[in-house]
Amino acid sequence: MQNRRDFLKTAAFAALGSGWAVNRVFAGGNEVPSLFNVNSRAGATPKLKLRFFPYELRLRHVFTVATYSRTTTPDIQVEVEYDGIIGYGEASMPPYLQRELGTVDSVMAFLKRVQDIIGQFTDPFQLEDILAYIDTLSEGDSAAKTAVDIALHDLVGKLLQAPWYKIWGLDKEKTPSTTFTIGIDTPDVVRAKTKECADRFNILKVKLGRENDKEMIETIRSVTDLPIAIDANQGWKDRQYALDMIHWLKEHGIVMIEQPMPKEQLDDIAWVTQHSPLPVFADESIQRLKDVPRLKGVFTGINIKLMKCTGMREAWKMVTLARALDMKVMVGCMTETSCAISAAAQFSPAVDFADLDGSLLIANDRFKGMEVVKGKITLPDLPGIGVVKL
To answer: What mean pLDDT do residues 290-314 have?
Structure first.
């Protein structure tokens, strides 16, 4: 039988859906609607408004992978406002992914187009219609689309006064441990980085794909015996060499392999996966929902990154489809603030592996959100994506 609290909550949701305004209260520094104080204020129907600005992320350490090094990451911060409630989003664009994700100029140009048309939508709960329309504005611009998607999900979660893991029906106690990434570097630096993080995490992630791969692993193993996930960043070109490396890595406590070979070599990757003693995950080979079916049988699983797949809406569909195809799922990230990291963490209870250390790698985070406690992803109970501005 419905009790009074449930009745009031249902009535408030109905009021939200019919365009009525609600009073707002403050929780954890965020302004959210009170579902139990419906304000009968009459007037113009609220409209969505979008704001954005560039924000360069400063890395704590030089970040090196198989093909490049960097100390900063270009980023755009986004806000979507509706009736005084603000949802936060972001676009992160590592330079090596400019073709897929865009540049600061291209992202801002796309967001200006969205800014000009978003006011035509008066119901933020129509996420499917809004985001599907925004997706038609261009073929690419995935990071820009992600920024809007995250902000809208944050906004809608705040309007519902619920975090997205609850809206999706997930149990936050089932969040996995996140990997912590050790970039390619000299043995002394690798040892120092490993010592710095070994007692705070339950699993490490190591970037390979160069001639010193075995030296990297042996250096880390001189410091810790923690499980290790490997990202080869397409660095192995020969399938027999890739398979030999995987067998060697398994003997040294590695638990999974990410993108062992160039994304164009799908037949070779399928052969490696078939013979591999470890699960093999797609990274560069996967971007959006349409890519998932063709990778069945090529990889054991997929790595979903919000910046590549246009955001939370499509990411959740990718999780669902991958599970239907009996594939494993990993959630990954770029270097990002706690805004995008916390957004991705909302579906982390549904994945097998998580690599959500992006906000830990930067020195100028703008938000407090998902935290790593004893190596495990810990989700706050705040609504939306669960972040508070610092």
So the answer is: 98
- Which pLDDT tens digit goes with each residue over 32-62? 444 433 333 446 789 999 999 999 999 988 8
Mean pLDDT, to the nearest integer, of 188-197? 92
- In this prediction, residue 7 carries a pLDDT of 40
Token pair belonging to 73: 């990451």
For 90, residues 6+ apart whose C-beta sits below 8 A from its C-beta are 55, 75, 76, 77, 78, 147, 150, 336, 337, 339, 340
Residue 143: its H or E element: helix 142-160
Judge whether residue 85 has pLDDT over 80. yes
Does 17 score more than 80 pLDDT?
no
> Tokens 């009459």 identify what position?
42
Q: Is the pLDDT of residue 14 over 70?
A: no
CB atoms within 10 A of CB 219: 21
Q: What angle do CA 166, 172, 174 make, to 5 degrees?
A: 130
Print burial letters for 31-50: b (CB count within 10 Å at least 16), e (below 16).
ebbebeebeeeeeeebebeb
Give the pair of three-digit tokens for residue 233: 């960043």
Query: Strand 254-258 relative to strand 280-282: parallel, antiparallel, unpaired?
Result: parallel
Strands 85-92 and 75-82, bridge-based pairing: antiparallel
Which phi and psi angles does 177 have, rounded to 5°? Answer: -75, 145
SS3 303: strand
CA dihedral for 277, 282, 285, 291, sign (positive or negative): positive
Long-range contacts of 66-72 (CB under 8 A, 24+ apart): 66/184, 66/207, 66/208, 66/209, 66/210, 66/232, 66/233, 66/234, 66/235, 67/96, 67/209, 67/233, 68/95, 68/96, 70/94, 70/95
